[in-house]
Specification:
Blueprint lengths: L1 E2 L3 E13 L2 E10 L13 H5 L14 E8 L5 E14 H6 L7 H9 L3 E12 L4 H17 L5 H10 L1 E2 L11 H8 E4 L6 E5 L12 H9 L1 H12 L3 E6 L2 H14 L8 E3 L16 E6 L12 E5 L4 E3 L13 H13 L20 H19 L7 E5 L5 E4 L1 H7 L6 H8 L1 H10 L3 E2 L3 H8 L1 H7 L3 H19 L8 E2 L5 H5 L12 H17 L10 E2 L6 H5 L9 H16 L3 H14 L3 H13 L6 E3 L1 H16 L9 H9 L2 E4 L5 E3 L13 H23 L2 H10 L10 H11 L5 H30 L32 H6 L7 H26 L4 H31 L19 E11 L18 E8 L2 E8 L9 E6 L3 E10 L6 E9 L3 E7 L5 H15 L8 H4 L17 H21 L17 H5 L17 H4 L2 H12 L1 H9 L16 E4 L15 E4 L4 H7 L10 E5 L6 E5 L4 H8 L11 H18 L2 H5 L6 H11 L2 H18 L13 H7 L11 H6 ...
Parallel strand pairs: 10-12, 10-13, 11-12, 20-21, 33-36, 34-35, 34-36
Antiparallel strand pairs: 1-7, 2-3, 2-6, 4-5, 5-6, 8-9, 9-18, 13-14, 15-16, 17-19, 21-22, 23-24, 23-29, 24-25, 25-26, 27-28, 28-29, 30-31, 32-33, 37-38, 37-43, 38-39, 39-40, 41-42, 42-43
Length: 1897
């Protein structure tokens, strides 16, 4: 029972304390005067009576009523019902008070209405009960008594009110009569003023009473908004309600609290906050507060408060607040249910025949339905929570803890933000302490969560069933609030209307007689004392737990696919380990570690291991121990820090059980190897573990005390048939029930037993924690990786399972000597951690203080003891033999290659390429374990795959150290072990990537040393530090060669050359240093090299340096012949550009001469010594001209077209000054012959000299008029020229076109127009621009007119220049050259493009982003479009040269793009350069002699490191590769040859591609040394010699398809769509590493042969060999036919003991034999050339031949045509082709164009027969014979009668086992012949051949 009201007050306006118009209230009277003991009087009520402030108003306002809520210090809520009315005051009083203090508004009013103002007065009831309506009625009655002047004394009314006592909660009590029961829950009260009220108390006090507040709240804010507020309140956010009505604020807050049931809100709760206390809103703690809208502006600056505006229906959530919402699908289902309650019409809104009435229920009912929905929601959220309660004490009070992690894990909601926050919140803590105890009164929620879980689960998907359930719940809730809805009696008087109106005459509210009221109170108190106590027995009972969680969850628990199979694997592996079948276990291991990612497998592992533990021990041997530990680590690795699946918990007893014996009687336990997991350092985990252990011990304690019979009873009660044992909670409940019946002694005994149980567990856990927290090697300063304990980064050894950190630990723990200090450091932190833990759990579980102190003294001893045992273990573990890691394989080294660092054990990690990882099929070759070796030449990884199924294979990855482009540190987690290792990612420009992780045995400083060495080798100080120079010099980096040089004269020559060069340079450029060899003087920046202004031309070069004899002494003269013998000279002779005899004297009849002006490298450092220049230009002119060009690289001739005699020149771009001079018209009035003019004149003279050297020019009639030009052109150009002309125009358009143009569309007009429009007119005609633009051309494709245009305006010399440089120049209309501006790719572009290409071809990690596929990355790199640009320009130049115009390529500095274009042009135009010798010569001449800066572009030394790697030469090789693909029969060398060069031009194995120019090579004495005798024959210094030598041994560089056509000019397609990605970028062979170091290849094979095969149990050895794309070298494993035959021949000869002849000789013999054979027969027969060219002919000539594959004439006729094939070299075939049929000669001298066996179907009913058919092209017939030998022709089919050849179908009696496509029919006018060939290809050949004959006819 309780008082209805604790206090009654009258609060009025305080006239004395007015401050600036702000009034204050004061309590006028309060009853009772002294506080009740059980509820003290709340302070500050005055503020709450007028929350917006006490103010006087000019007009009387209606009386108001609201309930405020105050919370006292014991967090009890007091409900203050405030009834406020207004009383009149006289204004004059106010005037006397200080007028200035009155509000301005008041003053004005005062002027208008001097008579009266009104002050508020409040009647207040303070109660601990929440009966709003009753309070409203009571206070209203008191007011009515006053206003209407009733006869009842006020004291009586108040006295009755204060002495009214009502029950707290009703509810039926058995055994009492019905009447009393009604009286019990219906209390009728009267205040003695003729009133009667009925108070209905709720049946169950635990359920909140909500009236209709919840429904109102939803009406005001809407479903989604309220759900936001609901989630915000549960997750502890700040919530503020705004409304202009106070009562609504209270109701809203009350409604929000009601839907939170069964959780209770425990933070600040102020439904009405007075304006004076607004600063409360900035409190940091969560709250629910209501504020009048009047203060809205003050709430604006609150940043983290969610504001709900009840009047406007909005909820505003600030940006910084994130509300976690309910987990799906709960959120969705809750919203659906709520909308069905609140808006039932929504569902049937679309029905054609809606039911007549679907009104929502009445507000009161609707309110309960909404609460029903939330109850249902909580039942789902918390289902099974009782299974996660740990009961740690039963007596004297139950102490209960909730195991959050287990709950989340079993619900698989660990990721869910909302639930995590709710479970961590205060409300839930309250929920656990309130509902945890197992023996107490139960309510609706307990029943729901225990008995309806199953129902909820089945119905959750069906909204209607959910609704039914909700309605049932609503009914119960309603019944609870209104037990007797029928009885509702309120007889309360309201004030009469007139009394309210004539309130003017009202007297003020009277003061009451305090004594009178007090008497009432005392009288009632005395009566209470004498009355018998009302005993209401509480209905306590055992709280049901509901179904356990496990069953309800597996539906959405993440059960992994085919988990049964995985569990099987785990079980088998463990069985193998314990049966000591280690090999089997090893094979299963990777699968097990993969399986252990799944929860089921991890739980299975713990169960399986448990079975092998006997009496808490399981002793293993080393290998077993290692495997078990590895599995444990893998299992723990994925445990989160809270261990929601209880896996760490299950492993905890196991890690202290599994152990192995070591020497000296020491045992090592598994815990020392599994410490490195975050779970062990989490306090929460240890607490949960501790509590669950305590619970099981306490359960055991009480199970013993109960006798067996009771236990049996229990088991029978259990519905599940006794299989489920009594849970600890059930026991606790039983004990709690019995507790009051026990004697004091018994009670004490039980309390003590429990306390000591907890205490002993605490000791046990202190031990356990020290096991898992102290590292094995405590001397090391490795602290725990934890929250408060230490440094997360520290890498520990505690995983090295085998010999646990054995010897390795020492290698990287340099002994520090501070051992004690450090170990104590570790010990201290562990002790602190354990102390914190012990304090927490012991206080919670009520351990006595003495025991706690004892624990604190024990813990340091425990830790110290453990450290001592660990030291012993650690010592022993060092003695253990380390685990058998795979033995490190030594790499085979090249002669002269030495190891710089011996192998370091590393793991090769897979990168983004998928082939090796097994993703594309096949076992994973990577990751692999092995060692990385650093040699003077290469970086080599060699090892074996981790996957035991391919453990026998060897994986090798290597690349030359010089090709390293990027190195970065990475950290890697190895899949087998759990710890993160430091690693390196090394990328090389030979398209190789090594991701390595250093093994734990490799000390980190060693890895650092490795990096330093690598850098030193990658970027030597000087070129002489590279491998090509140091090779064979025993590893010392030798820079100075002190050896005596045999070839003395050479040395002196080079010395003299260099000296004189320096001398002349000194003299010539006084003003500044010119481009100096950049490798050993600081590289000047490009800018200064380009900037020419300071050189004055007037300084003449010293004459003496110009004649040879003056500088070279007679003894050295002979060595000049060396210069002459250089490759270039041989080539110039071949081209007829100057012969040796007259190279130094001048023969006038030759148009060109070899000039020696640069023999001292004085004119141009980067040019060769001998240059081809026009005969008429003297050397002095050259020295002047060179200054107009960048780097002094003036135009020189490098090739001449033997047919048209057009020449190709190369130079650098012009200097800015030069460009202007170049275009200046000579007739412009000159202000005086300036120097610039003279140079530009000389330049013109130079160009003119080149033009006049061309025969076409000299033939034309003197002065070049237009007509003269055309006539000459007509006469000189042969017919082939005419055919080619239209093409050039198109090509030029393409090349000069801007980037926007789509390649492949030859748009006419526009492009030319735009280029010419810039005012640069073409050669001879001012209006040529328009003609070029083809404005008036009638044809859409401009055919004839274009040919005409080309004939008219073809310039003699085209200068290919850079668009950017040629801006603004005007061209003279009489010059005979024309400038073609093109856009050229910048070196930087090439560099960036190459980087992207490498990333695309060799990605460093697998690409998850689908938009970045390989092809997309390739496109982004723009490599293909760069190739396209270079090829396009080259093809243009080829066309121009072929039509008889000379071309000068002058781009950039003349050593990058220029070199590419010039060399490609020569390659395309001259078949000689497509042979071995020619290609070598081309590279030596154009790339080496003409100074492509190999060292600089390849960043080969320290100086050029910053410039980065720019693969200009690689780009050229790629272009050659593209041409090779399109013309496979034109090249003598194979694709492999190009890859070989691409690899070795960056590898620095040879000296060929080092240094930047001939000058530098001479200075180092490298240039001519190749001629001298070699010091060590096995070390090749030149890549060419190496290739020659290798080519003699093996045909690997040779292209068997080589059958060139004479003088063929190649014109490849250049569109990007025609280009292919070079496989050099993509392929790799892991079996042997790159195949470009040939000696290694041979050696590895030899090694393989030496180790004989193990006898294979006598079974026949399989011949099958599986070829992996990334592992085997395909060319080696599956060689092409010819190579194979040559190899077989060699091995057969070796067996017979004959000396084998060289492959080349044999091949040549075969070819000549074949030629003679083809000559013997007048036409090449099928047997010979067709055999060799048929398979190639489809690729035959790129442009003329790609005919449509219709019947017009397939490409085969190329091979059959006339004598062409007799002359062309055959391409393929077996060594014995020529002799195959030589035993007989066909007697008929007929022509056999094609012959072979065909089955022919006879006439009707005759069988198929094989016949020898001969196709005769000359006689135009198809003859057939009985057999090959047959002389007699059996029949003839005349080809003239043949109508068609079509594929046929097999008919009856056709030969068996022949594929369908082998049949074809020949249809003649008379009949159809059915034929059948041996196979489909053969049939196709026949059909094509016949077709060709038909089309040729």
């Amino acid at each position: 029972m309780a008082r209805l009201a604790d206090y009654y007050l009258v609060v009025g306006y305080d006239l004395d304390k007015r401050v600036e118009g702000e009034g204050q209230g004061r309590i006028l009277q309060r009853f009772p005067e002294k506080d009740w003991e059980d509820s003290p009087f709340p302070q500050g009520i005055e503020l709450f009576c007028q929350p917006s402030g006490w103010q006087l108003v000019p007009e009387r306002q209606p009386a108001s009523f609201f309930v405020a809520v105050l919370t006292d210090i014991n967090s009890e809520r007091h409900y203050c019902a405030c009834f406020t009315f207004w009383e009149g005051l006289d204004n004059p009083k106010l005037q006397k008070a200080e007028a200035s203090e009155v509000d301005e508004a008041d003053e004005e009013l005062a002027v208008v209405q001097p008579a009266q103002v009104f002050a508020p007065k409040s009647l207040v009831l303070v109660s601990r009960m929440d009966y709003t309506e009753v309070f409203r009625n009571c206070l209203g009655l008191i007011y009515t008594v006053h206003v209407d002047g009733l006869t009842v004394p006020m004291e009586t009314v108040v006295g009755n009110l204060l002495t009214c006592i009502i029950p707290i909660a009703g509810g039926s009590q058995p055994g009492q009569e019905e009447r009393e029961e009604i009286e019990e829950s219906l209390r009728t009260i009267t205040l003695g003023a003729g009133d009667r009220q009925v108070i209905q108390t709720p049946i169950d006090d635990a359920l909140p009473v909500s009236g209709s507040t919840v429904a109102q709240l939803f009406r005001q804010l809407g479903i989604v908004n309220v759900l936001y507020l609901f989630c915000a309140a549960l997750t502890e956010h700040k919530i503020l309600f705004l409304s202009s009505s106070y009562q609504r604020l209270t109701d809203a807050c009350r409604g929000l609290l009601a839907i939170m049931f069964p959780l209770k809100y425990s933070f600040t709760y102020v439904p009405i906050l007075p304006g004076k206390l607004l600063e409360v809103l900035s409190t940091p703690t969560p709250f629910i507060i209501g504020v009048n809208s009047f203060f809205r502006s003050e709430t604006q600056e609150l940043l983290d408060v969610i504001i709900a505006d009840l009047d406007g229906g909005t909820v505003t959530i600030p940006e910084c607040v994130h509300i976690s919402l309910l987990p799906e699908p709960l959120l969705q289902q809750t919203q659906t249910a709520l909308s069905m309650v609140l808006d039932p019409e929504l569902e049937i809104a679309d029905h054609a025949f809606p039911p007549l009435s679907t009104q929502p229920s009445a507000l009161k009912i609707q309110d309960k339905e909404i609460r029903g929905v939330f109850l249902w929601l909580f039942a789902r959220l918390f289902q099974g929570y009782r299974w996660c309660l740990h009961i740690i004490r039963i007596h004297p009070e139950p102490v209960i803890r909730f195991h959050k992690a287990a709950f989340l894990g079993q619900r698989s909601l660990t990721e869910d933000d909302f639930l995590m926050k709710v479970l961590d919140g205060m409300a839930f803590a309250g929920f656990v302490s309130e509902r945890g105890p197992p023996y107490r009164a139960t309510d609706l929620f307990d029943d729901l969560v225990a008995n309806h879980v199953e129902r909820i689960r089945q119905e959750e998907a069906c909204p209607h069933k959910v609704m039914n359930h909700v309605k049932e719940l609503a009914e119960q809730l309603f019944k609870n609030e209104n037990p007797y809805p029928a009885v509702a009696m309120h007889k309360v008087q309201r004030p009469s209307e007139n009394s309210q109106n004539n309130a003017q005459s009202q007297s003020p509210f009277p003061m009451m007689d305090e004594v009178g009221v007090q008497l009432f109170i005392d009288h009632a108190a005395a009566k209470l004392k004498t009355a018998p106590p009302v005993v209401k027995a509480e209905l306590k009972g055992m709280v049901p737990s509901g179904p356990p969680l496990g069953d309800t969850v597996d539906r959405n628990g993440n059960v992994m696919a085919n988990s049964a199979r995985r569990l099987e694997v785990v079980r088998n592996c463990i069985t193998y380990i314990f049966e000591n079948k280690m090999l089997e276990a090893k094979k299963l291991m990777p699968a097990v570690l993969r399986a252990l990612k799944g929860r089921a497998a991890r739980i299975c592992l713990t169960q399986e291991l448990n079975q092998h533990v006997l009496q808490n021990r399981a002793v293993l041997d080393d290998q077993q121990f290692d495997y078990i530990v590895r599995m444990m680590n893998c299992t723990l690795q994925d445990c989160s820090h809270i261990d929601e699946h209880g896996i760490a918990a299950a492993l905890l007893p196991l890690v202290t059980a599994f152990c192995r014996k070591m020497g000296a009687g020491i045992t090592q336990f598994a815990y020392s190897c599994v410490q490195e997991h975050i779970v062990w350092t989490t306090m929460q985990f240890w607490e949960a573990m501790f509590y669950s252990d305590v619970q099981s011990h306490i359960r055991a304690l009480y199970l013993e005390t109960e006798d067996g019979e009771q236990q049996n009873n229990h088991e029978q009660h259990d519905g599940s048939g006794g299989e489920r044992e009594i849970s600890a909670l059930d026991l606790a409940s039983e004990q709690s029930r019995l507790w009051p019946t026990l004697s004091k002694e018994m009670q004490m005994e039980r309390v003590q037993k429990e306390e000591s149980t907890v205490f002993s567990q605490a000791i046990h856990y202190a031990n356990r924690m020290s096991y898992l927290l102290l590292p094995l090697d405590t001397s090391k300063n490795r602290l725990l990786r934890t929250t408060g304990l230490a440094d997360v980064e520290s890498v520990s050894n505690s995983y090295v399972t085998n010999s646990i950190a054995g010897s390795m630990a020492e290698s990287y723990d340099t002994e520090s000597g501070f051992e004690d200090a450090e170990s104590s450091d570790v010990a201290n932190s562990v002790v602190r951690f354990i102390n914190r833990f012990v304090d927490k759990v012991c206080n919670e579980s009520g351990v006595t203080n003495e025991h706690l102190k004892a624990l604190h003294t024990m813990i340091p001893d425990i830790v110290q003891m453990h450290i001592e045992t660990l030291d012993a273990v650690h010592r022993e573990s060092k003695r253990l033999p380390p685990i058998q890691k795979p033995k490190l394989l030594r790499p085979t080294l090249l002669p002269g290659e030495e190891l710089v660092m011996d192998g370091m054990r590393v793991h090769l990690i897979p990168d983004g390429r998928e082939e090796a990882t097994g993703l594309m099929g096949g076992p994973p070759l990577l990751p692999a374990e092995g060692a990385i070796f650093l040699t003077t030449y290469r970086l080599i990884f060699k090892g074996t795959p981790n996957d035991p199924l391919v453990g026998e294979q060897v994986v090798t990855r290597s690349f030359p150290i010089a090709s390293l482009t990027k190195e970065k540190r990475i950290s890697v987690t190895l899949p087998m072990d759990q710890f993160v290792q430091e690693g390196l990612q090394l990328r090389s420009c030979t398209f190789q990537l090594m991701k390595i992780a250093f093994d734990e045995e490799v000390a980190s400083d060693l890895a650092e040393v490795f990096r330093k060495h690598m850098h030193k080798l990658r970027y030597p100080q000087h070129v002489q530090g590279t491998f090509a120079f140091t090779v064979g010099q025993c590893g010392k980096m030798v820079v100075e060669h002190k050896t005596k040089d045999k070839n003395q004269s050479l040395k002196t020559l080079s010395k003299n050359l260099v000296k004189s060069a320096k001398r002349t340079i000194g003299r010539q450029y006084v003003t500044r240093k010119k481009y100096s060899p950049p490798t050993w003087e600081n590289r000047s920046s490009f800018q200064s090299e380009l900037d020419e202004d300071e050189i004055s031309v007037s300084e003449e070069v010293d004459q003496s340096s110009l004649t040879l004899s003056s500088t070279i002494r007679s003894s050295d003269r002979q060595t000049m012949s060396n210069v002459v013998e250089r490759a270039c000279c041989r080539d110039y002779q071949r081209l007829g550009l100057g012969t040796l005899s007259n190279s130094l004297t001048r023969s006038k009849n030759e148009p060109f001469r070899i000039s020696t002006v640069n023999r001292m490298y004085t004119v141009c450092r980067s040019y060769p010594g001998l240059l081809i220049v026009p005969q008429s230009i003297p050397d002095t002119t050259l020295q002047r001209i060179c200054r107009c060009y960048r780097q002094n690289r003036f135009p020189v001739v490098c090739w001449r077209n033997p047919r048209t005699k057009a020449v190709l020149l190369r130079s650098a771009g012009l200097h800015a000054k030069g460009v202007v001079g170049f275009f200046k018209s000579p007739n412009a009035p000159a202000s005086g012959p300036s120097q610039a003019d003279s140079t530009s004149l000389e330049q013109e003279k130079y160009l003119q000299a080149i033009i006049s050297s061309m025969p076409s020019y000299s033939e034309s009639s003197g002065r070049n008029t237009l007509s003269g030009f055309t006539s000459t052109h007509m006469s000189t150009s042969d017919s082939s020229d005419k055919l080619r002309q239209p093409k050039i125009g198109a090509l030029m358009k393409q090349v000069m076109g801007t980037k926007e143009d789509v390649p492949g569309t030859f748009s006419r007009g526009g492009k030319w127009g735009s280029i010419r429009g810039s005012g640069r007119l073409s050669a001879y005609n001012p209006d040529v621009g328009t003609r070029l633009a083809q404005k008036e051309s009638p044809q859409p494709n401009g055919g004839p007119s274009e040919a005409l245009f080309l004939r008219q305006q073809r310039a003699y010399l085209y200068i290919i220049g850079d668009k950017a440089q040629l801006k603004g120049g005007k061209q003279d209309s009489f010059q005979q050259w024309e400038v073609v501006p093109i856009e050229v790719c910048d070196v930087r572009q090439v560099k960036n493009s190459f980087k992207k290409l490498m990333k695309a071809c060799v990605p460093s990690s697998s690409i998850s982003d689908p938009s970045m596929s390989f092809l997309r990355c390739l496109e982004d790199s723009e490599w293909m479009s760069l190739l396209h640009r270079v090829l396009q320009v080259s093809v243009l130049v080829v066309e121009l040269l072929d039509t008889g115009s000379s071309v000068m390529v002058s781009l950039e500095d003349g050593w990058d793009v220029t070199t590419q274009v010039v060399s490609l042009v020569q390659l395309l135009s001259d078949p000689y350069y497509r042979t071995f010798d020619g290609f070598r010569l081309l590279v030596e001449k154009e790339w080496l002699s003409f100074g492509h800066r190999f060292s600089h572009r390849g960043a080969q030394t320290l100086g050029s490191q910053s410039s980065g790697f720019t693969p200009v030469f690689l780009q050229f090789l790629d272009c050659v590769h593209q041409i090779h693909l399109q013309f496979p029969m034109e090249f003598e060398f194979s694709q492999y040859y190009l890859k070989f060069l691409a690899y070795h031009y960056v590898s620095n194995r040879f000296r060929t591609f080092l240094l930047d120019s001939d000058y530098e090579r001479i200075e180092l004495g490298v240039l001519y040394e190749e001629k001298g005798e070699r010091k060590s024959p096995q070390v090749c210094k030149s890549v060419w010699d190496y290739i020659d030598r290798l080519n003699k041994k093996t045909p690997v560089f040779y292209n068997y398809m080589f059958s060139p056509e004479d003088e063929e000019v190649l014109r490849p397609y250049t569109f990007t769509s025609n280009l292919k990605v070079w496989d050099f970028y993509m392929e790799e062979t892991l079996s042997e590493g790159p195949s470009y170091d040939w000696e290694l290849r041979g050696r590895q094979e030899r090694v393989a042969e030496e180790t004989p095969e193990k006898p294979d149990g006598g079974g026949p050895k399989s011949q099958r060999h599986i070829v992996w794309p990334c592992y085997d070298s395909l060319s080696k494993v599956v060689p092409d036919a010819i190579t194979k035959l040559l190899q077989d021949l060699q091995s057969l000869e070796a067996e017979l003991g004959q000396t084998s002849e060289k492959w080349k000789d044999r091949w040549d013999k075969m070819k000549t034999a074949q030629r003679t054979e083809t000559k013997l027969e007048s036409k090449p027969s099928f047997s010979s050339s067709l055999l060799m060219s048929s398979n190639l002919s489809h690729q035959r000539r790129s442009q003329g031949v790609y005919l449509q594959e219709s019947g017009v004439g397939s490409s085969i006729n190329l091979a059959l045509d006339c004598e062409a094939s007799a002359t062309s070299t055959p391409v393929a075939g077996r060594p014995s082709t020529s002799t195959l049929y030589s035993q007989f000669q066909s007697t008929e001298s007929e022509n056999r164009s094609f012959e072979g066996i065909l089955f022919k179907k006879g006439a009707l009913l005759k069988p198929w027969k094989p016949r020898w058919f001969v196709l005769d092209k000359t006689k135009h017939q198809l003859r057939y014979y009985e057999s090959r030998q047959d002389k007699e022709c059996k029949g003839v089919i005349e080809l003239a009668d043949v109508e068609s050849v079509i594929p046929g179908t097999p008919t009856m009696g056709a030969p068996k086992n022949i594929e369908e496509k082998a049949f074809f029919d020949l249809k003649t006018t008379k009949r159809v012949y059915n034929f059948c060939a041996q196979d489909s290809t053969n049939a196709q050949l026949w059909m094509d051949s016949v077709q060709n004959c038909l089309s040729d006819a």
